[in-house]
């Protein structure tokens, strides 16, 4: 079973290095392909792709890891795409993205480069896992790596085109109360805020939300001392009884929208097996 490991914090981050060592030690074939810089907040973006600007690639050595490791001048999603296109060996069976320095819960999953890599993998029919760690107390990288290895066998034999978002409390493994399925919280632990606006610049920061989530949500689950796991779909089609594919657009039609409780389907152009 071949695993491509990436992240959005960059190949030098302690999270991806701890994760890589644990997955390799568990008997998986590993290749590490990660940004050579901090690519946080890039979501599923590939960045600008141009034949005039090739992607830079550099070899890296991760202490305690036998597998090859590469840093590229691109986003986490681009790491997945290049892996799928066999730039770094055979197509991986699983993509694991992380360990992110900080939680990716609730709405923040939309912007996360860590989660974006798992969704990019799903788009190509590859199992995807995103792993993030709460660092409000202490960076327990080993705990997050151990939990990932525990989940990997189930993902490996699970449905194709799956993507799972795992968030881990910053606790020693023996103090984590278990792993629970969870929904997305309405808010994450932080939100973006413009703190000042000048003539030619603005200050943009992440601030605490103070949100008190239900324990069945990802953020609430982590705060209760459990690791959370959430199944995600990166792209869906939204339909209702008044609209179908091929139908002419009419201004009088009832527009389909997920908030109206309409039908959500995986996009046929992506998810049909060839």
What percent of residues adopt helix (DSSP H or I)? 10-25%
CATH class of the largest domain: Alpha Beta
Topology order in helix (H) and strand (E) letters: EHEEEHEHEHEEEEHEEEH
Q: Which structural class best describes the helix and strand composition?
A: alpha/beta
Reported for the largest beta sheet, the result is: 9 strands, mixed
**Overall number of structural domains:** 2
Mean pLDDT: 91
Q: What radius of gyration results from the CA coordinates? A: 19 Å
Described by the principal axes of the CA atoms, the overall outline is globular
Give the distance, in angstroms, between the N- and C-terminal Cα atoms. 22 Å
Quantity of strands, as a count: 13
Specify the CATH architecture of the largest domain.
Answer: 3-Layer(aba) Sandwich
Order of strands in the sheet with the most strands? 3-4-2-1-5-6-7-11-8
The CATH topology of the largest domain is what?
Stationary-phase Survival Protein Sure Homolog, Chain: A
How many DSSP H or I helices? 6
Please tell me about this protein's structure.
By secondary structure, this protein is α/β, with parallel strands linked by helices. The chain folds into two domains: 2-186 and 213-234, Survival protein SurE-like phosphatase/nucleotidase (Stationary-phase Survival Protein Sure Homolog, Chain: A); 238-271, no CATH class. The protein has six helices and 13 strands. Strands 3-4-2-1-5-6-7-11-8 form a nine-stranded mixed sheet, with helices on both faces. Strands 9-10 form a two-stranded antiparallel sheet. The chain is globular. The two termini are 22 Å apart.
């Amino acid at each position: 079973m071949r695993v491509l490991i990436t992240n959005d914090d960059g190949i030098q981050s302690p999270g991806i290095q701890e994760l890589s060592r644990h997955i390799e030690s568990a008997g998986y074939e590993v290749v590490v392909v990660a940004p050579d810089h901090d690519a946080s907040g890039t979501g599923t973006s590939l960045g600008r792709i141009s034949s005039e600007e090739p992607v830079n690639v550099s070899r890296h050595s991760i202490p305690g890891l036998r597998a090859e490791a590469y840093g590229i001048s691109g986003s986490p999603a681009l790491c997945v795409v290049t892996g799928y296109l066999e730039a770094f060996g055979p197509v991986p069976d699983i993509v694991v993205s992380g360990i992110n320095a900080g939680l990716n819960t609730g709405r923040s999953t939309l912007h996360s480069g860590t989660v974006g890599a798992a969704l990019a993998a799903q788009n190509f029919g590859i199992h995807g896992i995103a792993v993030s760690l709460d660092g409000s107390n202490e960076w327990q990288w080993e705990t997050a790596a151990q939990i990932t290895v525990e989940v990997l066998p189930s993902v490996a034999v699970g449905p194709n085109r799956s993507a799972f978002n795992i968030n881990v409390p910053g606790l020693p493994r023996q103090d984590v109360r278990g792993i629970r399925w969870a929904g997305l919280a309405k808010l994450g632990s932080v939100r973006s805020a413009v703190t000042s606006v000048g003539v030619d610049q603005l200050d943009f920061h992440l601030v605490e939300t103070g949100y008190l989530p239900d324990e069945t949500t990802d953020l609430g689950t982590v705060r209760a001392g459990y690791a959370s796991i959430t199944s995600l779909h990166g792209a869906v089609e939204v339909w209702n009884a008044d609209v179908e594919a091929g139908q002419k657009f009419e201004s009088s039609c009832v527009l389909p929208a997920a908030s109206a409780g309409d039908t959500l389907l995986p996009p046929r152009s992506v998810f049909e097996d060839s």
